[in-house]
Each structure stands twice: as structure tokens, then as C-alpha cells.
Write a structure and sequence with these properties.
Layout lengths: L1 E4 L6 E3 L2 E2 L7 E8 L7 E3 L6 E3 L12 E9 L4 H15 L3 E6 L5 E13 L5 E9 L3 E3 L24 E4 L5 E4 L9 E7 L4 E4 L2 E4 L3 E4 L11 E6 L2 E6 L3 E2 L1
Antiparallel strand pairs: 1-4, 2-3, 2-8, 4-7, 5-6, 7-10, 8-9, 9-10, 9-11, 11-20, 12-19, 13-18, 14-17, 14-19, 15-16, 15-18
Length: 244
């Protein structure tokens, strides 16, 4: 399944460069494929159908997805096409980079880029940029970056800003709002008592000064997650949300 959008003088940002403002490329279409689910099925010998084990050990996981951006370059002179094509390929072809759509500024995609360019005729050239992307698009702001009015979506956006939290005997929990993409958070401890720890689903994890990360702790799924802390200290919980 694919969805397409047709633009005029908008474009996409690749790293710190913009396709229209920096290269003069006119965006014609965007194609975003749906990511294929990583399924696990067991055939039933001597019986009908199969046993679907896809979600036996957790939520559905997805393969990478493909984004295709089609542009035209309105220049008659072949040397202009050669120059723009070379600049663009030198900048991003074969590289893993961040891509933000003007039409979806609250998120960015990340993946490996490829560039194809053809001089169609004496009037214009066509350029196609393909992104082999992680299945989820990432929210621009993580839990330690204040959200911004200009890029925040009031339809689907979630305010995740937490900042540094002082943990005391009375204030000993942090609520992580639900989301669409699960991720493993990082904890940065700037001050801590010897018994400073975080509790998650009945397990306790000791927090030391500096960065801490525990693969067993997962946030951002279909339910809010409440992290409870023991001891006292100051902690930042860093994670980023995402959406298909």
C-alpha cells in the first residue's frame, strides 16, 4: 500500500539542506510504502491453516520501508543539471541521513539515501531520491527537548518533555505517556543516594551517576508507563517517540 502527495514549491530537508531552497528542485510527488510486518508462522502438518506466532514474544515488529521523492529541475542548460546532480550525489547518495518533509514537520525519517538523475529533454531534468528508512518516523523533539509550536501536530502530536526531575520520598515517580513506537530510554543521573534505583514491572535497577540504560525497560507502547524510584537523586529520562 502506498500514499502519494503532490506538491508545488515545498520540498524536503536532507540533513541541513533543503531540496527547493538549496538545489532548486521542484517536488512532484512523494511515495511512502507501508512497512512489512515481521511475521512468524508454523505450518500445521495434516491440518488446515497455520499457527501465527508473530506476537508470541511481544508487539509486532516491522521491516524497513521505502520513501521515494520525485523532482524536476527546470533548467535548459545541461551544465546546470550536471552541477546540481553532482552536488546532490556528493552530499547524500549512499549515506545514512535524516529527512524531514515540509508537509509533516513534527517528524523526521532516518535511513540510507540513493539519488538517480536523468536529463529528460532541453527543458527539464528529473531527479529521484529514494530513502531506505527505519519503519517508524521519529518525533522531532525527544523527552529532553521542549516541544515547538511551529512543528507540533495538534492532531497526532504528544508532549513528551520531562526535563530533569528531583526524586524524593514524596515525589518518586515519572509518568511516560503511551505512543506507537516502543523504545529503550536512557537515564542520566546527576545526583544520587547510594540506594538510588528505578522500578519497572516488578524489577529494580540500580542507577549510578552518569548515563544508565537497561534493555529490559521499554516505554512508548500502547499504555502509559509509570517509573517508580527508590532513594533520592536527580534524573533525566531520555527517549524519543515515533509513528508509522
Amino acid at each position: 500500500m502506498e500514499m502519494k502527495e503532490y506538491m508545488s514549491q515545498t520540498g524536503i530537508s536532507i540533513g541541513d539542506q533543503h531540496t527547493f531552497r538549496d538545489w532548486g528542485l521542484l517536488l512532484i510527488s512523494i511515495s511512502i510504502s507501508s512497512p512489512e510486518a515481521k511475521t512468524k508462522v508454523i505450518d500445521v502438518l495434516g491440518g488446515d491453516g497455520h499457527i501465527d506466532m508473530t506476537e508470541a514474544f511481544g508487539p509486532v515488529r516491522y521491516k524497513n520501508r521505502t520513501l521515494v521523492f520525485s523532482f524536476i529541475l527546470l533548467h535548459r542548460r545541461p551544465e546546470i543539471w550536471h552541477g546540481i546532480s553532482s552536488r546532490l550525489k556528493n552530499y547524500c547518495h549512499g549515506k545514512k541521513m535524516k529527512v524531514t518533509l515540509d508537509s509533516d514537520p513534527g517528524y523526521y525519517w532516518e535511513g540510507r539515501l540513493s539519488v538517480e538523475s536523468v536529463k529528460e529533454d532541453q527543458v527539464y531534468s528529473s531527479i529521484e531520491i529514494t530513502l531506505d528508512a527505519f519503519p517508524y518516523k521519529y518525533e522531532q523533539a525527544d523527552s529532553q527537548e521542549p516541544w515547538k509550536w511551529d512543528s507540533f501536530s495538534f492532531v497526532s502530536g504528544v508532549i513528551r518533555y520531562i526535563g530533569e526531575v528531583e526524586i524524593t520520598a514524596e515525589e518518586n515517580k515519572i509518568n511516560i505517556p503511551k505512543g506507537n513506537m516502543r523504545s529503550v530510554p536512557k537515564f542520566f543521573v546527576s545526583q544520587n543516594s547510594p540506594d538510588f534505583s528505578v522500578d519497572y514491572q516488578g524489577q529494580s535497577f540500580r542507577l549510578k551517576a552518569g548515563w544508565n540504560r537497561f534493555p529490559q525497560i521499554s516505554v512508548g507502547g500502547e499504555e502509559d508507563v509509570v517509573l517508580y524510584f527508590s532513594g533520592t537523586g536527580k534524573v533525566k529520562v531520555e527517549y524519543r517517540g515515533g509513528s508509522l
